[in-house]
Amino acid sequence: MSIALVILAAGKGTRMNSDLPKVLHQIAGAPMLVHAMKAGASLDPERTVVVGGHGFEAVQKAAQAYDEDAVVVEQVEQNGTGHAVMVARDALAGFAGDVIVLYGDTPFVQPETLSRMVEARKDNAVVVLGFEADASEKYGRLVMEGDTLTAITEYADASDDVRAITFCNSGVMLAKADVLFDLLDATNNENASGEYYLTDVVEVARSKGLATTAISCDAAETMGVNSRAHLAEAEAAFQSRARAELLADGVTLVDPNTVWLSHDTVVGRDTIIEPNVFFGPEVTVESASYIRAFSHLEGAHVSRGGVIGPYARLRPGTELAEDVKIGNFVETKNAILDTGAKVNHLSYIGDATVGEKTNIGAGTITCNYDGVMKHKTTIGKDAFIGSNTMLVAPVTVGDDAMTASGSVVTKDIEDGALALARAQQVNKPNMARKLFEMLKTKKALMAKGKE
Ligand code: UD1
Ligand code: MG
After folding, report:
1. b/e sequence 176-214, b meaning 16+ C-beta within 10 Å
2. What is residue 97's predicted lDDT score, i.e. its pLDDT?
3. Which residue in 403, 365, 366 sits closest to 384, CA to CA?
4. I want to staple 52 with a disulfide (CB 3.0 to 4.6 A). Which of 59, 399, 428, 439 is the partner?
5. What is the pLDDT of residue 451?
């Protein structure tokens, strides 16, 4: 059966106290909305419809940045979850499969859980995802008779008996598209909130003799984000799960709680990560690498055997071949370093390529920016860049070439050449001693003048 995703993301999220629409607040470097879309993507959907409202353009942009085929429809007035799904109707015209409704502010539903819902759909017209919550929580209540879900009652509309039920509605619902829209047509907004409730389709389905059920998942999956405090909790939950996955995958985290991962971080087996390492989005570290303490990586690829840090900063476009070493206080950006290249201390390598086994000395800077444009530095293989070399781009350094320490290189260096680009040294005999004498006398005179 083909699947379409409908992701509800029109709400304002008042309790976030933010100019940013709630679903665009980030967890592990990706908007909450993208987490929900990723979860849904595991079902290989034929169509994805996001229902936006507050901050519509920004939501549309974020949704389509993740999936350019996503259709984003606007719910101008937020008249309830049922109304929101109805707004998606036109975008699903001609679609004959199942619809799964997810919430943009419920980022952690797991692919296995969604698969279990698809399985349960075989014997049921409507499948709802539930979870166990504390009786004090104000979620909608799932009223069950055996395996049959007889109703979902919103907390505001529930009697004390129903409020005592702890099996709660996550909001995730699965039904055949045409059935879902027919059921929604039969709902109304005569309830405590005056809204069209998606949840009301269950009772309508029952009245039509359709089979309805709910399956259960861990509450951690259905955790919704309504405030900054929830956002911080969600981040913590994501991080602890992602760290545990890396440990299980054979990655050593010396102090797991201090390593921060992104939603898409990939780390190979037998890599060791020291404390206080931060991974921004789009980082892959291959096997048997060593990421030392206090390093910050984003948009970078570290191949097998890389040694990074301590205190290294790999910025987007960093592409390191096997056995590359990037040491302390080194920043790389848009830099391709070939096998065995080393940049061990205090350097900036940006908009550059560095050949195999080349050694970049301490304090080297690729001067890539002229104040208006960026320029490229190309360094060959087996080259030696002396400490404190300024490579004023655009510039090319050949294979087996050297630069003298302190050089300001403004011209290309051919293969095998040594570039000396600094002032000649002149030694003046005894001049230092004379200078010291002069200065000390001056200081003494000044001290006397103050008396
Ligand atoms: C909803 C459920 C409740 C469930 C709870 C789980 C209904 C009527 N109630 O309640 O049973 O326990 O979620 O968190 O469905 N949205 C729109 N347009 C709207 C209204 C909502 O897009 O007009 C979106 C919101 O942005 C949000 C989601 O739908 O992502 C849920 O809406 P929310 O107002 O939080 O519903 P709850 O009252 O929490
Ligand atoms: Mg809610």
Report:
1. bbebbbebbeebeeebeeebbbbbbbbbbbbeeebbbbb
2. 97
3. 403
4. 59
5. 77
Q: Kindly indicate the confidence band of residue 379, based on its pLDDT and cuts at 50, 70 and 90.
A: very high
Q: What is the pTM of this model?
A: 0.91
Q: What sign for the dihedral angle of Cα 124, 189, 47, 223? A: negative
For the cut 90, the answer to whether the pLDDT of residue 106 exceeds it is yes
| DSSP 8-state secondary structure symbol assigned to residue 369 | B
112 Cα to the center of ligand 1, angstroms = 23
- Which residue has the CA at smallest separation from atom 20 of ligand 1? 80
* C-alpha 138 to ligand 2 mean position (Å): 9
- Kindly report whether the peptide bond that precedes residue 429 is cis, defined as omega within 30 degrees of 0: no
- Rounded mean pLDDT of 42-47? 97
Cα 85 off chain centre by: 28
For 56, the token pair is 């519509």
Contacts of range 346-351, beta carbons closer than 8 Å, 24 or more positions apart: 349/377, 350/315, 350/374, 351/375, 351/376, 351/377, 351/393
| Residue 308: band (very low, low, confident or very high) from pLDDT cuts 50, 70, 90 | very high
